[in-house]
């Protein structure tokens, strides 16, 4: 059942579910063609990709899940919400759908989730598209207080500082760059988190971000498995959460990467620049396919 606050014109997709041990995970699977798998960050959900999917599903198969605790997925009370558990759920969905040659599109906290999969199954990942995300071993370079030592990157620190605000305030602050965002759209982010008056500390997003440092370090140590995957990086330069240094890290990280900066956009490019992103993604995938064919024929 779709909740009554959901605008079906805005999000006109068929809901699908996969039954996991901890609960039902919601996802959408739209269109036909080469698969693009989109992973959201915190504390948003697949709704963030809606405009991108409306365009890309005409040529591609677009898959986007809501991590447990987010969007239209179950929000189990006593589940761990740690990043490695989200990554395991994502892997189950991929197994369920049996996708090959995917383009992995990641944003924010979705990057470590997606990269954990790519590191385990590099043969299934043809290319990567990355929007503003952090490097997951940031715990190494930053001096955190002991309590928040394992919080993941800048968004973790931001959320941790907001534990006593309401989910409504949190969304308002996260989307502060989006002055033009209509209130009904903003409400789709607030309502998807459950009760708007709840304190953020009750949310999955605040709990999950107390990450498992060891897990991030493990990923980092196996990074060479994905460093050669062709990557397109789309970056909003007005991001107040993730500074441009993170982009420099990613440029050094991927051996073959193309960077498109969006000078006037913030953290949520998908809200501001869906059409442009769709064009860049589409062109990038076409180029990669051509290159693929050439190497196979030569």
From TrEMBL:
Residues 35-274 form the AB hydrolase-1 domain. InterPro entries: AB_hydrolase_1, AB_hydrolase_fold, Carboxylesterase_BioH, Epox_hydrolase-like. One of its GO terms (molecular function) is catalytic activity. It comes from Pontibacter ummariensis. This is Haloalkane dehalogenase.
């Amino acid at each position: 059942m779709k909740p009554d606050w959901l605008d079906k014109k805005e999000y006109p997709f068929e809901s699908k579910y996969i039954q996991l041990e901890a609960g039902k995970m919601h996802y959408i699977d739209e269109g036909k063609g080469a698969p693009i798998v989109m992973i959201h960050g915190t504390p948003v959900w697949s709704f963030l990709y809606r405009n991108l999917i409306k365009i890309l599903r005409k040529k591609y198969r677009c898959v986007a899940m809501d991590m447990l605790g987010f969007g239209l997925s179950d929000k189990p009370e006593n589940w761990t919400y740690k990043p490695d558990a989200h990554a395991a759920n994502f892997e189950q969905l991929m197994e369920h759908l049996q996708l090959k040659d995917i383009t992995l599109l990641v944003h924010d906290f979705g990057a470590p989730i997606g990269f954990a999969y790519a590191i385990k199954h590099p043969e299934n990942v043809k290319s990567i598209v990355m929007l503003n995300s952090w490097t997951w071993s940031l715990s190494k370079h930053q001096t955190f207080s002991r309590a928040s030592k394992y919080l993941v990157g800048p968004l973790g620190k931001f959320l941790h500082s907001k534990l006593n605000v309401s989910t409504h305030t949190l969304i308002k602050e996260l989307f502060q760059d989006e002055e033009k965002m209509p209130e009904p759209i903003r409400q789709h982010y607030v309502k998807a988190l459950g009760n708007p008056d709840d304190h953020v500390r009750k949310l999955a997003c605040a709990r999950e971000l107390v990450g498992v440092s060891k897990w991030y370090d493990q990923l980092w140590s196996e990074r060479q498995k994905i460093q050669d995957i062709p990557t397109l990086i789309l970056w909003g330069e007005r991001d107040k959460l993730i500074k441009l240094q993170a982009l420099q890290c990613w440029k050094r990280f991927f051996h073959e990467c193309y960077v498109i900066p969006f000078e006037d956009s913030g953290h949520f490019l998908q809200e501001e620049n869906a059409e442009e992103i769709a064009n860049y993604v589409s062109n990038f995938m076409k180029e990669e396919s051509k290159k693929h064919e050439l190497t196979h024929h030569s």
